[in-house]
């Protein structure tokens, strides 16, 4: 699993800000209206989405594996004048965070799990830490995205103080890809230092997700695609699951 140590420094610069609006809008449409509802955001990263949720009226806790990401999240929350506890932890073990009315996990973070056993274990952890009647929303890459769109994908970013090359290749396991990232980051002396990271992602077919969710205890599951309230098609890029306990 990627550490994001270097990635954290440029993550916000390469993320499309409009995605946070889309995740927020989707969440507000599908989370039941409840005053001061407790929401846990898994894989909260640098905290942008957590702040959006806090400003929308939720009692938010953010959890992420990377302390580097959380350090940025805490600075961002302070700048936004909101109070959000950010917890360093693994979504495979939520024993330290309590229970919540809602849990979200966006930006295909589930796809970073090593295999379907870990995916199932995450679903079990979420189910156990959801209050009765609670809702779990997450998104993943579709198999079309990993099999047809990503292989051969290349993205370059150039800014004054950093540059990035992002190439994606098909991996060995079914519906899996490898993202190879190279960063050139400028230091205080004006010199650029190179950093390399590898991020591995894997998704599964819809039936596999349905089975894993049911095994975890979720019996009410709805699936949507591409931030819209529509069913997935053969060419949908991102699947959204809305699961009720």
TrEMBL record:
It comes from the Bacteria. GO terms for biological process: methylation. Keywords: Methyltransferase, Transferase. GO terms for molecular function: methyltransferase activity. CDD domains: AdoMet_MTases (cd02440). Residues 40-134 form the Methyltransferase domain. This is Methyltransferase domain-containing protein. Transmembrane segments: none annotated. It holds the Pfam family Methyltransf_25.
